[in-house]
Amino acid sequence: MTRPGGTWRNWARTEKIRPQSVERPRTVEAVRRAVDAARRRGLRVKAVGAGHSFTGIALAPGVLLDLTDLTGLVSVDPETRSVRLLAGTRLHQIPGLLRPYGLAMENLGDIDHQSIAGALATGTHGTGARFGGLATQVIGLTLVTASGDLVTISESENAELLPAGALSLGALGIVVDVTLRCVPAFGLAAQEKPERLTEVVDGFAERAVASDHFEFFWFPHTDLALTKTNRRLDVGESLRPLSRAARLTDDLVISGLVHPMACGVGTVVPALVPAINRMSSRVWGNRSFSDQSTRVFTSVRHVRFREMEYALPVAQLPEAFHAVQCLIEERRWRIEFPIEVRVAAADDVWMSTAYGRDTGYLAIHRYWRKRPDEYFRAVEEIMRSFGGRPHWGKMHSADAQTLRELYPRFDEFLAVRERLDPDRAFRNAYLDRVLGP
Ligand SMILES: Cc1cc2nc3c(=O)[nH]c(=O)nc-3n(C[C@H](O)[C@H](O)[C@H](O)COP(=O)(O)OP(=O)(O)OC[C@H]3O[C@@H](n4cnc5c(N)ncnc54)[C@H](O)[C@@H]3O)c2cc1C
User: Fold this and answer.
1) First to last CA, the chain
2) pLDDT at 1
3) Per the structure, how many domains does the chain have?
4) Are 33 and 57 members of one domain?
């Protein structure tokens, strides 16, 4: 995908670019050399992770730094449970790296394909009213700045840069390693079942607080919500993982075969979408099991899709959800992909979608062969009317002027950008739009 002269595409096939050159550094020193060489040639430079952002945030018009080979564990401090990982490490590699130390990441999103630096840069999050997004787990990082210098950021060194560096939009420099505060490895008991939508939406805030990790999916045109409630197990509680056959049925048959076929049929005959969604609500997620945290938090996505996600004050979530429901009904659209609703605790990471407020997330999706524009635009209007903040890695149309009003520390973030990248070596068109040139 990133071979020299080739075209780079993101996973969702919403963005592509032919960079002027591609570098695949294996060491921190090689990253410094690449940044330095780009500066001398007057080229802009960007690192890409796994290309799992739906926006053009990772587009590298000048030098593309592919950090696939900059992976692994640098060090572990068992006393503070902190672990230092190279920036290109994929999330799915982390459980294996931490297993010998009995540690795990505190919370995760829906998938584990992303690189750790890429996931942090866009504010990737999971669900849980007492838990923040991935960036809240960051206690340090090392950046290569535009001048080619290495800047260490931690709670004791350049600490004032931490709330900006932990979630940087890739705008402050090339992250070469990150230090995370981990927790003792833990299991999760998962309960997934269809429930009456109205009750789930109306009771969302209470259920989210009462559970460790609560979320639900709603297939439009149905009156059922698929709820997922995960409870963190105490040490010594035994695990009851899904059998291999059950996992295969869920991952391969339902997600890998039935769902893609259903999306294909719905694309050709949209009138069938409501019936297909009713069927999907019944075959998806009616199970309970327990397993290691990563195996419960994350799953495989076989069907390509497009996504927009907005973060709202959690108390506004039910009203906003109802508004989207009415919109879909009024416009008579046939929406084949579910809406996902999650929650996160308020945090103090400057550009986090949950900065300063307990947050409910509403994510809408469309099958990649359907045009998302009209649906996404109309839902975005509703989200904005509730003070919603868009996920940095998912499709949206907000610009710097709008975002400045939504993020109290926006100008402080820009001041850090000015300090670390005064010549905008790390800019691209997306950053120009959301941060300004
Ligand atoms: C199927 C799917 C499921 C998803 N599920 C979730 C979810 O559950 N929750 C959620 O919040 N999001 C989710 N996302 C969004 C995804 O987590 C983010 O877009 C994430 O940023 C992707 O990580 P990546 O490694 O692919 O980064 P990329 O998309 O490659 O890059 C993202 C940004 O990080 C920057 N970057 C990457 N590496 C570095 C580095 N070393 N130094 C500096 N900047 C760097 C890039 O320049 C770019 O600005 C999902 C996306 C997909 C496609």
Assistant:
1) 28
2) 47
3) 3
4) yes
How far is ligand 1, taken at its centre, from the CA of residue 148, in Å? 24
Residue where a domain terminates, one of 66, 82, 106: 66
Q: Classify each residue of 395-419 as buried b or exposed e, where b means 16 or more C-beta atoms within 10 Å of its C-beta.
A: bbebeeeebeebbebbeebbebbee
Residue nearest to ligand 1 atom 48, measured at CA? 58
**Residue 282 Cα distances to 108, 198, 287, 293, angstroms:** 26, 17, 11, 25
- Return the CATH number at 46: 3.30.43.10
Q: What is the pLDDT of residue 191?
A: 96
Q: Which residues of 251-263 are buried (b: 16+ CB within 10 A; e: fewer)?
A: eeebbbebbeebb
H or E stretch including 187?
strand 187-196
Band (pLDDT 50/70/90 cuts) for residue 243 is confident
Query: What is 259-299 written as a DSSP string?
Result: HHHHHHHHHH-GGGHHHHHHHHHHHS--EEEEEEHHHHH--
Atom of ligand 1 nearest to the CA of 174: 42
Query: Nearest C-alpha to atom 52 of ligand 1 is from which residue?
Result: 52
Question: Would you say the CB of residue 49 lies under 6 angstroms from ligand 1?
Answer: yes
Q: How far is the CA of 396 from the centre of ligand 1 (A)?
A: 15
pLDDT in tens, 21-76: 999 999 999 999 999 999 999 999 999 999 999 999 999 999 999 999 999 999 99
Question: Are residues 274 and 383 part of one domain?
Answer: yes
Any atom of ligand 1 within 6 Å of the Cβ of 110:
yes
Whether 115 lines ligand 1, by a CB cut-off of 6 Å, is yes
Distance 308 CA to ligand 1 centre (A): 14
**333 shares a domain with 222:** yes
Q: Which atom of ligand 1 is nearest to the CA of 361?
A: 11
Mean pLDDT of 394-414: 98
Q: What is the pLDDT of residues 103-119, one digit of tens each?
A: 999 999 999 999 999 99
CA of 277 to the centre of ligand 1 (A): 29
- 162 pLDDT tier (thresholds 50, 70, 90): very high
Q: Which atom of ligand 1 is nearest to the CA of 52?
A: 26
Which atom from ligand 1 is nearest to the alpha carbon of 122?
A: 21
Ligand 1: does its nearest atom lie under 6 Å from the Cβ of 166? no
pTM: 0.96
Residue 256: what pLDDT?
65
Residue 235 CA to ligand 1 centre (angstroms): 32
